[in-house]
Every structure is written in C-alpha cells, then in structure tokens.
Amino acid sequence: MNTDLLTERLEKVGWQLSANQLEGILEDASKNNVAYSDFLNSILMTEIEHRESTELSKRIKRARLPYFKTLEDFDFAFQPSINEKRVREVMTCRFIDNGFNVLLLGPPGVGKTHLAISIAAEAVTKGYRTSFITANDFVEECQKAEKSGLLPRIIKRYCRSELLILDEIGYFPFDAISANALFQIISKRYERGSIILTSNKSYIEWGKIFGDEVLATAILDRLLHHATTFNIRGDSYRMREKKRAGIQPTRVDSFQE
C-alpha cells in the first residue's frame, strides 16, 4: 500500500508520531520479520506513551509549580520532627481521592514548600489536575480581578483543580476581598477538592492573617475537618547552608503550635 495513504490515515486518527516515523517503522518490521500482533502492539504502545508524556507536560505547565522537587531530595535526617512514614502515606495521593487536606506548619526554611511541591509533583505524575499559588500572589490576583470585575473567574479557577497548593500563608496579611475569596474557594472545595497549605503561623494567629477572627475560624473548620497536619519544629535548611559557608545567621524564634 502507498505509504502516503497510510500516513494520511494515521494523521486522520491522530497518530501523528507514527505518521512521522512510518518509513522507519515499516523498515524495522520488515527487517526483523515482526509478527502482525507485535507490530500493532508496538505502534499502539508508542502512541500511548507519547500521549501520556504530552499530557504530563501539560499538567506540569498548568500546575505552575515554582520548581520540581521529589521526596528523595528531602533530608528527613535533618528534620526528625517529621514522620517519614506519614509523609509516604500522603505521597500515595489517596487523600486527593477522598477530598482531604494536608497542612504543613512550621517556621521559615524547614522544608514546608519542598514537601508541598514534592506531593504536588507526585500528584501531577499520577494524573491529578493540580494548581500552585503563593498567598501573596493570590492576594494580588484577587485585587486585580476585583478591579476588573473578574473575581468570580478567579474563584472558579481555583475550584477546578483536584489539588490546590496554597503556599506561605502568614507571611503577608489578606485584605477583605482576598480573604473572602479564599473562604469561598475553601468552602466550594470542601470534601470535593483537596488542598495542601503551608504556613509559618499557628492557628491561633490566623485571625490576624485574615483580619477577621470569625472568618479565620470558618476557614479552619473546613480545612481541618478532614486533614493531615505536620508540625515541623526543626532548623532552617537555609541557615544550615549559611553556617556551612561560615556565615553566622541571626537567631530565628522557634515555631509555636
């Protein structure tokens, strides 16, 4: 059969990779006397792997992770307050299927964001739709959206993914608009979409973060109902690196639950 016609038909069913490599595929099959079933299976597996790779790349891009980290990069020996077995359980991503949350609390530099990104990266690899945003960027997005009348669109966007990572809650205060928007997102996601949240503040300080004790209580009520919490009480990785470089860092008060 004319290879041009085969190429056209492969493109028509969306098998672009096989269409591009058709001459080589046919040549290899003929040279190695490949059975019909093996030939078909080879083409199918090539297309499946290509599509899975393409979809993974799209999920990684949509997730907007600031960098890509794995759990193997995390130094549990440096942070003995973290139960590695519990972290490994979270890495199965079963909490996402159940609509549960993961909260990572502790002072700056102890690895909260690293763990959050590692879990997110695993979720993306497993096929879950994931979104990442820092608290400060979220506040700025809400302020801009409010001015242009697009705040409902922001709320809808962060309700869409199966896993939402909210990083660095507590470093900057929320205004009334962003605090209310976050409450709506958490309420809409309650028991339906999972959240990973990192914070350098204990729960008793959340009223100051959101400027409203009642709102903070309502947010915590929904977050903590089905949640795994990690309280990290170790030293800062960044301070360790400074010490190794011969720089004596300023003391940072320990996180209090």
Widest sheet: strand ordering: 2-3-4-1-5
Order of helices and strands: HHHHHHEHEHHEHEHHEH
Radius of gyration: 24 Å
Helix content: 55-70%
Descriptors:
disordered C terminus, elongated, five-stranded parallel β-sheet, 257 residues, alpha/beta
Topology:
Layout: H1 3-12, H2 16-20, H3 22-31, H4 36-63, H5 84-90, H6 94-97, E1 101-105, H7 112-125, E2 130-134, H8 135-148, H9 151-160, E3 163-169, H10 176-189, E4 194-199, H11 206-210, H12 213-225, E5 227-231, H13 237-244
Parallel strand pairs: 1-4, 1-5, 2-3, 3-4
Helix pairs in contact: 4-7, 8-9, 8-10, 9-10, 10-12
What report would you give on this structure?
- The protein is α/β, with parallel strands linked by helices and 257 residues long.
- Helices cover 55% and strands 11% of the residues.
- It contains 13 helices and 5 strands.
- The protein has a 5-stranded parallel sheet.
- Helix 10 (176-189) links the parallel strand 3 and strand 4.
- The chain starts with a helix and ends in a 13-residue tail after the last helix.
- The relative contact order is 0.14.
